[in-house]
Amino acid sequence: MDTSVAVRGSGITKTFGDVVALDHVDVSIARGQIHGLVGPNGAGKTTLLGLLLGLAVADQGTLEIFGAPVGRTLAAPDGVSGFVDGPGLYPTLTAKQNLAALVALRHRDAPSTGVDEALHEVGLTEVADDKVRGFSLGMRQRLGLAAALLTKPRLLVLDEPANGLDPAGKKHVHGVLNRLVAGGATVILSSHRMDDLEALCSEVTILSTGRVVFSGPLHKLSDENRELDYRLRVSNAADARTVADGMPGIHIVEGSDAVARADAEAIVVRGKVAAMDELVARIVRADIALRELAPVVSPLEAAFLALTEQTDGEASVPASGQSAGRSPDQHSDAAVKPSAGQSADPIPGQPTDTAVKPSTDQPQEAAR
Ligand SMILES: Nc1ncnc2c1ncn2[C@@H]1O[C@H](COP(=O)(O)OP(=O)(O)OP(=O)(O)O)[C@@H](O)[C@H]1O
């Protein structure tokens, strides 16, 4: 058994009717890291997370968590907790009562074990006695995280945990996840926020229409040979433009939104890393101050867009659908595969021992 691997999936296929949600997915997720799952709407992220939480069972393929095969029954695998589609909570109970109810289901003798600590960890101590009915989306997300933490998971699985979080809440949750991982746990989360993923994750898996189109370390997405748009804020945009104009490998991007959003002292140029290095050197030699230099879209976002390029509606093609990704030879040495297929249903509202389904106002038998 490879002890460095938390999750290993091979040939995982999950269909819902004629829709292929996961199409022969191979994935290997290292222990002790935060691993990001990213992909367009309908790519299969929630379906995959649901399999990890025991909310659904794959039609084909094998899935192992910490070396143990995931069974064919709907039950959360040992040491795994989290939620998909938002945490299920009892709106008429307080935050504290929600957590106590979950603990009571497991430890009838000590129903409050760990509740205060979990609320403190997610920053909800002050509203511990408030009814969840009045909670904002962000507060519910944090309470769902607290519910998952109660089980002291070795693998925490979260579907878009940053939904509804304000910047302070997001920072707090990032801190919780980083502490968890520092303590040896593994976190797998999905997000549409590339900045969150870049801030948190060492590795990502990009899904497109049910297939893995990239899986590996984030740095492998920074392809120096790919042209990117960069925004430069300088002390004199007109002079910087003159320097860039006609330089080999550099193209000035006119009418870019990124310029409009910035200020009069910004230009946007397109080029590869080597050409950008030369441009920066020339700008400095021309006594122009370079105040900011950043890609208009991050390497992760650029790779995401390139790898999941699709036309409207393509994300919902049935089992016989077309490939939506680029071919492997268009990418670097990370695990890149062609994409295709399409997806289907995470199990309908099946709360399990640790995982919770939809956060409607209907009480779920929640995050135990
Ligand atoms: N219970 C279900 N019944 C039928 N189809 C389903 C079911 N759950 C998911 N699907 C379909 O499977 C595909 C993958 O859905 P999934 O929710 O896994 O995607 P996702 O990547 O999480 O999308 P999003 O980013 O929009 O949350 C979609 O086409 C979806 O319509």
TrEMBL record:
GO molecular function: ATP binding; ATP hydrolysis activity
Annotated coiled-coil segments of the chain: none
Highest taxon in the source lineage: Bacteria
Keyword Electron transport assigned: no
Alphabetical UniProt keywords: ATP-binding, Nucleotide-binding, Transport
InterPro entries: AAA+_ATPase (IPR003593), ABC_transporter-like_ATP-bd (IPR003439), ABC_transporter-like_CS (IPR017871), P-loop_NTPase (IPR027417)
Pfam families noted in UniProt: ABC_tran (PF00005)
Biased composition (Polar residues): 351-368
Domain ABC transporter: from-to ranges: 7-234
Family as reported in the entry's similarity comment: Belongs to the ABC transporter superfamily.
PANTHER family given in the database record: ABC TRANSPORTER, ATP-BINDING PROTEIN
Name this protein carries in UniProt: ABC transporter related
Organism of this sequence: Catenulispora acidiphila (strain DSM 44928 / JCM 14897 / NBRC 102108 / NRRL B-24433 / ID139908)
